[in-house]
Automatic annotation (TrEMBL):
Record's protein name: Periplasmic component/domain (HisJ)
Keywords carried by this UniProt record: Amino-acid transport, Cell membrane, Membrane, Signal, Transmembrane, Transmembrane helix, Transport
GO BP annotation list: amino acid transport
Residue ranges occupied by any ABC transmembrane type-1 domain in the UniProt entry: 290-474
Transmembrane segments: 285-313, 343-365, 455-474
SUPFAM superfamilies, alphabetized: MetI-like, Periplasmic binding protein-like II
Gene Ontology CC: ATP-binding cassette (ABC) transporter complex
Residues spanning the signal sequence: 1-31
Record InterPro entries: AA_ABC_transptr_permease_3TM (IPR010065), ArtM/GltK/GlnP/TcyL/YhdX-like (IPR043429), MetI-like (IPR000515), MetI-like_sf (IPR035906), Solute-binding_3/MltF_N (IPR001638)
Domain of life the protein comes from: Bacteria
Upper classification of the organism: Bacteria, Bacillati, Bacillota, Bacilli, Lactobacillales
Amino acid sequence: MKKITKWLQQAFITITVLVVAGLGMTQVAHADDGLQKIKKAGVMKVAISPDYPPYEFQMNKNGTSTDVGMDVDIIKQIAKDLGVKLEIKNMDFSSVLVAVQTGKVDMAIGGINPTDERRQSVDFSKIYYNGGQSFLISKTNASKYKNASDLQGTKIGAQTGTLQYDLAQQKISGATVVGMDKTPNLIFALKTNKVAAVGVEKPVAQAYVANDKDLKMIDSGYKLDINQTGAAIAFAKGNPELVAAVNKSIDKIENHGWIKTYLKNAGKNMSENTVDTSMLRYWHYFYSGFLNTTLIAFVSVAFGIILGIILALMKMSKFKILSWPAISYIEIVRGTPMMVQILLVYFGLGALINIPALTAGIIAVSLNSGAYVAEIIRGGITSLDKGQKEAAKSLGLNQKDTMRFVILPQAFKNIWPALGNEFISVIKESSIVSIIGVTDLVYELNIVRADTYRGIAPIVVVMVIYFLMTFILTRGLNYLEGKMNHD
């Protein structure tokens, strides 16, 4: 057992070194060639998180989802100035800077504040906008919280990993800061009195107040360094030519006063989104999420079963050269969160091979499912009476045919309920792939919440869809189980 533990530690160290080395090589490869690479490819890839109006959000027009907002207009102008096409990569805000560092995109935009901590990992353009900092409060508490000083000792919500989170901790005495990944979640927490206020940038606060009559905005009162609190565009380290070219476009935008026009356009788009906030209008969002969730679940379980069979047979092998890798793989996968595995596949493996988000999500979920299926299959095989092997041997079947025609069919019959549970678990747990921008049900849920400013209705719709999916699947699996038992 000690040898196995030592081997596991060595394997983990090796994997970590390879990933870090890969990330390092990627960053070196991108140094000083960012602008040339973009022009050679004819495409500028930009990461955004389209749930942050008026900076970036999605507009529902004639059943078509389109990325809009001030930041989207800015990167369109930059792409035009560079003479290349624009390719937008949607993902969680927590992933946009990682995408830049690992070379998945050429730059990231989204109200990103160029703090000293972030400058250690990425480079920034000049500040293109500074809207200031504000708090959102419930109108019912307007008399209680007249200014930021009244928030001392209260619970304040802020998006995790943002400047607003740090400022609330540093500037509001005695406050408990509650971090969440999505602004719509924070607004919902505010409306249900989970927090007293939500710290956001002033343009975001204005957008919510304009579209939600239950909210009010108060000034933060912060005295801040404009060089760290304004919005800037992020790049991988060591791309001065690209930064200079983008700064030139920003100067052009400022000289023409286009930021005001971009904000005006964003306001019009937000108003159009909120003319009709019924969930029926957004049916195609949920339908698209349903298709991707179903695709991920079915493909991942199929590959997971294949991988599970291989791993189970390897683990049961008498040869340590086969059993040890299988044991190590199963323990590592079962001992780490799926979210970490998805990030590792997309950003770690993706640093060496450019993998689309959907493909990376399927690979990660398949690899995760394979480890659990392996233990289910192994349990099914070991539960069979040893006499089955002896009977097969007496009939002249070799070990391969015995496993194929005798052992595995009976094992699958015994483990069918467990495999069904794994399938259902994959449908629900695969929702974590939204973190890398896969447009599954949870991803579309957050987009609809950001577009409509409605907190509950989209959640209810997605819950119903998930329930119907699992309910129908459960009934189907139970039917097949009954047929197998009857046979």
